[in-house]
Amino acid sequence: MSAELQTTRHHATLILTMSNPGKRNALHPDMTAAAIETLATAERDDSIRVVVLTGADNFFCAGGDLNRLIENRALPRSVQASSIDLLHGWIDALRDCTKPVIAAVDGGAAGAGFSLALACDLIVAGQSAKFQMAYVNVGLTPDGGASWFLNQALPRQLASEILMDGKPVSAERLHQFGIVNRIVSDGSALDAALEWAQDLANRSPHAIQRIKGLLREAPANDLVSHFEAEKHSFVESLHHRDAQEGISAFLEKRPPRYR
User: How much is the pTM?
Assistant: First the structure.
């Protein structure tokens, strides 16, 4: 069986499962292209409230396939550049998705697999899961936004250690630094992510979309500019039907029912 992206539904949650049997779900251009297309479709489907990204067979993703990389060394440099552009398109699709995206990580996430997890809004990990930026171990440098994500999330010395040392980092250590949100028992990351996804699906889709937008814009904004962005977002949210339902439900002491 070749590498593929499997898609399933769990109520209002779309589950994307990376599958590449025998290769710890190593990435392949077909998988990446399918992910970009699927996320674009999900964006237009109002019945999908949350996306969960996971890997088959209790392993998230080993990143790039080294055998493919060796083959690409014999080809024009543009071939590998195009492959990385495709990966970056997947990273952008995860970041730009207006719906919450949860990474459910069991086993491990290495290289670009780690980058994909970092591109998600939230990470649930099994207690024994390992995260590794192993590029340097084979004489390579990061892609998939790894150096950007880690630089944003960690002090420079810690980001440098993860990228330059190339050794596995435990889920517990990343949890201490706020990169991993929740640690659960091994083998239960997907179930825990789906439970969290259901909770998020019950919240205002419009508010979630605007919160994601504010978080995406914040690193490029100074505080005054961000004040303006927050003001605009709040006013628009107040006059949206979700605020009418949310405020009414709170005052009436009942659960909100968002459409």
Answer: 0.95
